[in-house]
């Protein structure tokens, strides 16, 4: 049996479901039961009523959300080191300090945060629903973290004042995209449509034709009549884009745009994780209860 067959056999025996983010390695995407953006995967984790185990091939905060929403299931993060650096940029102390400074401002946190922080916010959001979540809040000034670029984008879309916490939270991978590269790529592919993730900078937003979550980018590419695209997000998404649109062409906006944390999950590690049932994501119930409230309020929106 090859590794893929072994994983599939184990998966069946253990009644496990494999969820993979759009940035995962191609071979992981190919073996997964579902591929998606962070909100789709959170939903899937809840919908899979018969699964006894969820193997979350992504980074820490996504597996944490699945564990928070599914206290009765075993949620595994195959590689413990797969931690989103942006999620590490916000601390509970920082939220508390901001609340003292802006006592009337509600706190909205991007899901790219640790569970302990989610326990201290009013509602969570993802890049797919951030605009709707902010619109739904009855306040004009809102504390928002940790991604400053997403805060600025949502502020532009809603007209509301979003105060970033921390002041300069960012994704190191999306920071790599530069408008100069788009200008060069546009010379080579004049008819290409530029699609980017809202974690990109304001300068990148200026040159984009479409801005959306990873799955929204996939949907846009599928439904668009354009046949050529310049893609401003992590390179793993190219596998799905090319698989779903074999007749279209996709050019990464910067060749080095790789999230090393997303790539830590390999087939070997996935196999060991399933076999040894590790690493189980555990959130203290007090934290999980409050964080669950913030995630559920997001689902209501
Ligand atoms: P999506 O929810 O759009 O998949 O984004 C998650 C992420 O980490 C982007 O860098
Ligand atoms: Fe975190 Fe950026 Fe990697 Fe997304 S791409 S998981 S935000 S470091």
What does this structure look like?
By secondary structure, the chain is of the alpha/beta class. Helices cover 43% and strands 16% of the residues. It is built from 14 helices and 12 strands. It has helices at residues 3-13, 26-31, 38-47, 60-69, 92-101, 115-118, 130-136, 148-158, 179-188, 202-206, 214-223, 237-244, 267-276, 285-300, and strands spanning 16-21, 34-36, 53-57, 74-76, 107-110, 123-125, 141-145, 161-164, 193-196, 210-211, 228-232, 249-252. The strands form 3 sheets. The chain has a 4-stranded parallel beta sheet, with helices on both faces. The chain has a 4-stranded parallel beta sheet with strand order 6-5-7-8, sandwiched between helices. A 4-stranded parallel beta sheet has the order 10-9-11-12, sandwiched between helices. Helix 12 (237-244) links the parallel strand 11 (228-232) and strand 12 (249-252). The model has no long low-confidence stretch (mean pLDDT 97). Iron/sulfur cluster is lined by residues 59, 84-86, 112, 171-174, 199, 234, 259, 261-262. 1,3-dihydroxyacetonephosphate binds next to loops.
Concise description?
The protein has helices spanning 3-13, 26-31, 38-47, 60-69, 92-101, 115-118, 130-136, 148-158, 179-188, 202-206, 214-223, 237-244, 267-276, 285-300; strands at 16-21, 34-36, 53-57, 74-76, 107-110, 123-125, 141-145, 161-164, 193-196, 210-211, 228-232, 249-252.
């Amino acid at each position: 049996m090859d590794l893929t067959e072994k994983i599939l056999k184990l998966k069946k025996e253990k009644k496990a479901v494999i969820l993979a983010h759009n940035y995962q390695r191609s071979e992981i995407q190919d073996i997964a039961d579902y591929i998606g953006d962070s909100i789709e995967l959170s939903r899937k984790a809840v919908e899979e009523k018969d699964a006894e185990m969820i193997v979350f091939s992504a980074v820490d905060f996504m597996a944490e959300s699945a564990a928070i929403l599914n206290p009765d299931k075993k949620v595994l993060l195959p590689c413990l080191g797969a931690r989103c650096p942006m999620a590490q940029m916000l601390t509970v102390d920082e939220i508390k300090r901001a609340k003292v400074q802006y006592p009337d401002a509600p706190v909205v946190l991007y899901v790219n945060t640790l569970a302990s922080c989610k326990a201290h916010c009013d509602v969570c959001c993802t890049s797919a629903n951030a605009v709707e979540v902010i619109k739904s809040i009855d306040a004009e000034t809102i504390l928002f973290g940790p991604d400053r670029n997403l805060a600025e984008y949502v502020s532009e879309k809603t007209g509301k004042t979003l105060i970033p916490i921390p002041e300069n939270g960012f994704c190191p991978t999306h920071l790599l995209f530069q408008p100069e590269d788009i200008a060069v790529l546009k010379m080579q592919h004049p008819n290409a449509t530029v699609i980017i993730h809202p974690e990109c900078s304001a300068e990148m937003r200026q040159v984009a034709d479409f801005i959306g979550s990873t799955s929204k980018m996939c949907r846009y590419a599928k439904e668009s009549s354009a046949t050529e695209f310049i893609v401003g997000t992590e390179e793993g998404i190219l596998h799905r884009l090319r698989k779903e649109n074999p007749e279209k062409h996709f050019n990464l906006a910067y060749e080095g745009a790789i999230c090393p944390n997303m790539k830590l999950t390999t087939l070997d590690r996935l196999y060991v994780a399933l076999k040894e049932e590790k690493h189980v994501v555990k959130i203290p119930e007090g934290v999980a209860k409050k964080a669950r409230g913030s995630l559920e309020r997001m689902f209501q929106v």
